[in-house]
Structures are given as structure tokens and as C-alpha cells.
Amino acid sequence: MGNEELLTGVLIVDYEQKIVAINQSFCDIAGIHEPPHLLIGKNCEEYDSYLQHLGVSAEAADKVIISNGKMFERKHIPCYIGNNRGSLWVFSNITTPQNTEPSGVKGETEKAAQSYSELISKMSHELRTPLNGILGFAQLLDMDSTLSSQQREFVREILSGARHLLNLVNGMSDLARAEAGRLNVTCDVVKIDSIVEESIKLVQPLAERKKIRIVNEMNSSCYVLVDPTRIRQILFNLLENAVKYNKENGVVKIMNTYDEEKINIHVQDTGIGIPDEEFENIFKPFYRIKGTNADGTGIGLSLVKQFVQSMGGTVGVNSKIGAGSDFWFSLPIVQRARHDHLQRDDIAPYIEKVKQIGPKKILYIEDRLSNIKLMEKILAPFPELLLFSATCGKEGLDIASAEQIDLIFLDMNLPDMNGYEVLEQLKRNERTSSIPVIALSANVMPTDIEKALSKGFEGYLAKPLDLKRCFEKIQQVLTRNKKA
After folding, report:
1. What residues are paired with 325 via a beta bridge?
2. Which fold has domain 103-179?
3. CATH code for the part of the protein at 188-332
4. Is the pTM of this model over 0.70?
């Protein structure tokens, strides 16, 4: 992995300020002499004298701190542990001679990053809006049992292409958030070998087309506290690259090693290799290896680095021209496994749960008729769910007041008022104040989602709609808000 010392301290605490995960490096930085595994489950207050000088508190912002004669970048990342909020603290050693950037340059850099982030957010919104219709109707078609095999093949090609485009949009959004320091992670305890097996299945079709064999040599059943979505993206990007840049009839091997409190996961290929002079650029955004014809945007490896670092890990590569490459990343192991992360891939259970809800009235306030038509088709299998629709905020408020509505889906960008204004007027009216409202929007920045939830929305669904998430939210809200 290289000889350089990457002293990265990691501390994860739950909503009660109890320690969920901690590594030896963090103990060294804080000056705690107890072994990390003995700290699991203890309250941070017991170690306040050690943590105070590091600024570990709910209000702390990211900054550079000095400890034990070294300089560390302190990152505080709010996360979810199960269904409850927690905090991930990452202390990265940045003790180098080049830590003297002038404040004026730093300010200009931050402004440029903010402008870039806003531009990507707007582009993402504009691209997501048409994708909502494409993916929504294609998902509905794929559920149609009367399709011929050829028709289903065509539908799945549409789905595949649309999802690929959505992944690119998501990748750009993630990159903008990461570069602006606003990348969100939702941590959970996962069994790493299960996630690896899933990721291999996703890449297998591409490997078969290129006659490349994927060999799983993982011998770990350990648990790590990570964002399940992010770890899947990391593995998928590394495995996809290993296939894309490989030779025909080549091999991709995924394996692991251990290093004290960390698991190191390696994705090795028998491909073209990477020249030494390109190592320093390989993880930069939009960088492509010279002399290759493989499709790609050049953001995958940049995201891998950002995702790994956001979860307290490190990433690197070893390579030899003509012999292949070995991309690796390391993550802290959770000392105490709490549960297996349950995977939820089948849509059928969600449909069955919604069918058991009983008679309900749902109002969809949306100015695009194609999206209303999509919602009609989504709810068509549930005759007991009666759908009302409105194309502007005022019309929606009138329907909500006149009918005994059980749930409102509300588009956040209406022609006459925004979603927050509609919600505010609903809350003011006694007849509508208790109706649960779910926001629908193509704006998927974490700040947008957190703002909506803090203002009183019951949920936030991103466009394009994912039917499983949609059905899951309907079931959750309508079974929790039954009328007396």
C-alpha cells in the first residue's frame, strides 16, 4: 500500500453520545490510553478531558487543529446509525510544509466551489425532470406480465440506458457536494462480504461480454460501519474499471487483507496498467488515463476517493504497465457487530403491503401532466387508493380542504407557489393541518432534503421516482396516520 504513514483517526458516536466505533489512531490523537475495543458503548462524557481540546461536540465545524505536535484536518459528518442520527469524526494528518495557503486565495477558491456546486445542482434538476417520466413508465412497463420476450428486452434496454444517465447525473451531484465539503453519509453496520457479492453481480454482465472472469477471494465476514449506498458505489466503480480496462479473457480478482483495526479490500486486474507518472492524477475529477479507448467520464475514481475518505478510510493504487493494476481501499472494522444489513431488492413485498392499507384518498399536486399520468399508473394496481390531482398550489389547497385527504404528494416547484408555501397554508387550515405531506422534487442536495424534513414534510422522494421507495413511503405514512 505504500510506505507513507496516513494517520487517520475515526470516531463514531450515536445520538446518545455513546461510542459506536473508534480506532487506535483516534486514541493516539486524543491521548486515550485504553484499547479501542474497551471504549465501545461508553459515553463520550467519560472522556471529556481528552476530547475537549479536539473540539468534538455537536456544534463543531470542520477546521484544522493541532494535537501532539501534529496538524490534523477535523471533519464532522452527521450520519444515521440505523434510524437515529449520529456523528462521524475524521481526523486526517495534514502535517506538511505546504499548509500556508493565503486567506484571500482560500476565499476565492471557496466561492468558485460554491458556484460550481450551484451550477451542478441546477443541471441535475433539469436532467432529472425528464428522466422521471422515462424511468417511471419504463418501470411500469417492466411490471407488465403480458409483454413478449422481445418487448421486455427493449424495455430493459430503455431502463438500462436511463439508469446509466441517472448514475452520471448522481455522480456529478456527488462530486459537486464532495468538493464543496457537503457530502452526506448515512452509516449502518454491514457485513462486507454480502456487499461484495452484490457488486460482483452488477458487473457480471459486462464481464461476460468481454470474456473476463471475476474471482471472489474475499475471506472476511467482518462488519464495517459505512454508508451502504456509498460502499456499493465504491465497489461498483472499481470492479467496472477493472473490467473496462482489462484484456479480453482477462481476470479480475477481489480479495482482502487485514491491518490492525482495518480491512483492506483489493480489486486487481490483468489489464493495461497505469504509468507511474499518472498515479498522482488518477483520482482527480475528469482525469482519463492516456491512450485508452474505454468509455467513461473520469469521475468514478474521484468519487471512490471522496466516498472512502468520508467514511474514515484511505485509498490507493499499485500498478505495472502490461501486468495490470491493484486498486485498494481500507475501512475501520466495527468492534461489535449489531446486525446484518437487510437487503431489499424485490418490489413485490412493497406492493403487497400497500394493498393491505384499505380505502384512502391521495392528492398529488403537480403542474406537469406527464407526472400526474405516471402517478395514476403507479397507483392503478391499488383500487382502494383514490387519487385526486391538482396542477397548481391553489387548486390543491381547495381539494385538500374539500375532501378528507389522507396523504398529499407535493411537487416543490409549482407555477403559483413553492412547496413550502403550500405546506404553510395547509398547516394553517384546521381541516388540512394534520394531513401528512411528502415532497417530490428533482432537487436532491442534502440541504434541500434536510430543510424539507425540518419544515414538517413527512418524507422527501427524489425524481426520478424509485417505485420501491414510493410504495414503502406510502405504506409507512398511511399505516402510521390512520384516522380514528
Report:
1. 319
2. Helix Hairpins (1.10.287)
3. 3.30.565.10
4. no
